[in-house]
Amino acid sequence: MQAPSSPDCPECGSRAKRFPPGREGQYHVFCKKCDHDFGRYDHLVADYRHLLDELEAHLGTSDNAPRDI
Ligand SMILES: [Zn+2]
User: Fold this and answer.
1) Ligand 1 mean position to 25 CA, how many Å?
2) Torsion-angle region of residue 20: left (phi > 0), alpha (psi -120 to 50) or beta?
3) 36: containing domain
4) Ligand 1 centroid vs 42 CA: distance in angstroms?
5) d(CA 23, ligand 1 centre) in Å
6) Residue 66 resides in a domain
7) Does the pTM of the predicted model rise above 0.90?
8) Were 36 and a residue from 4, 21, 31, 60 both cysteine, which residue would form a disulfide, CB within 3.0 to 4.6 Å?
């Protein structure tokens, strides 16, 4: 599984992430190049989802939008 598009590394600008083995949602994500700690994976995803939701709401093109019909 590939991680959802996530922020570039603030340290080196790399987008490559390293996912150490661990219980899903409880491990940290590290930059593949410089080992910068992005924090917990679930928090990273939650932040990104939040941004995505805002963007989709703004564009009105969400595929996941609940249908009112
Ligand atoms: Zn880095």
Assistant:
1) 21
2) beta
3) 17-58
4) 19
5) 23
6) no
7) no
8) 31
